[in-house]
Amino acid sequence: MKKVLAIVLAALMLFALVACGGGSENQTETQDQAGEKQVLIMATNASFPPYEYKDGDSFAGIDVEIANAIADKLGMTLQIEDVEFGSIIGGVQSGRFDMGLAGMTVTDERLKSVNFSTSYATGIQSVIVKEDSKYTSFEEFYTGFDANGDPTGVVDGITIGVQQDTTGDIYASDEVGKWGFEEDNVIRYKTGNDAVQALVAGKVTAVIIDNEPAKSYVASNEGLKILDGAYAEEDYAICIAKENTELLEKVNAALAELKEDGTIKTIIDKYIAA
């Protein structure tokens, strides 16, 4: 009886050792021998060409290539998650994503929730209207201006389409005196493309969106044009959780090297003509 019990105990110990060995092997899929994470998870909203978009089943664009270059510098594998723009910061905060790249601008409000890397690109907010629009500049959307040159009112019937939670949304929804159009005159859409299709259908007067995506949307939709002049100017950066200072330092170091060796300029020039 004792001999049988000993055999059973030996078998159980062997099973436990195999099980433990299997767990260690699986863990190395995401961690190296020092326990450091090997997968860099990037959140984006892939409807913002040329910064991020889908090319068949793959992701493409400026942010995608910059993120891949950063991952290479860090010796990590990039994993991209395509989510709604408005959920990126919350996902980074919670640790679901390591970082967010989505043509995202640094704002005081966003800085309350996450940290940002050094800027890697500069953009402007542009205004898209129909080609037969009577408006030739966004200043004509206002009824008048005060002694400081700031607008005092919005023309009746003006409606502005924006992608929700973007800086275009933030700026357009602001008060008139700060060159906004007030909440009641702004219609939010989940994607930039949804906003542009609303313009095509005549549901809004104009769409405010970053200039490079604006050019892509105008090129792919007949009957649209971009008004002269920038509605706003801004810098793009990478958002990272406030407590993840180690990753922030590594990303900033990688960005510095990629700027120094010309990689970032090459990537941007590939998608945006000088």
Topology record:
Blueprint: H1 2-27, E1 39-44, E2 47-48, E3 52-55, E4 58-60, H2 62-74, E5 77-82, H3 88-94, E6 99-100, H4 108-111, E7 114-116, E8 121-130, E9 142-145, E10 151-154, E11 160-163, H5 167-172, E12 186-189, H6 192-200, E13 206-210, H7 211-220, E14 224-226, E15 232-236, E16 239-241, H8 245-260, H9 263-271
Parallel strand pairs: 1-5, 1-6, 11-12, 11-13
Antiparallel strand pairs: 2-3, 3-4, 6-16, 7-16, 8-13, 8-14, 8-15, 9-10
Helix pairs in contact: 2-8, 2-9
Give an overview in words.
By secondary structure, the chain is of the alpha/beta class. Helices cover 36% and strands 25% of the residues. The protein has 2 domains: 39-120 and 237-271, 3-Layer(aba) Sandwich (D-Maltodextrin-Binding Protein, domain 2); 124-234, D-Maltodextrin-Binding Protein, domain 2 (3-Layer(aba) Sandwich). It is built from 9 helices and 16 strands. Strands 8, 11, 12, 13, 14 and 15 form a 6-stranded mixed β-sheet that branches. Helix 2 (62-74) packs across helix 8 and helix 2 packs antiparallel against helix 9. The longest helix has 26 residues, at 2-27. It starts with a helix and ends with a helix.
Q: What key attributes describe this structure?
A:
274 residues, alpha/beta, D-Maltodextrin-Binding Protein, domain 2, 16 strands, 36% helix, 25% strand, disordered N terminus
Number of domains: 2
Could you tell me the number of beta strands?
Answer: 16
C-alpha Rg (nearest Å): 25 Å
Number of helices: 9
Shape: globular
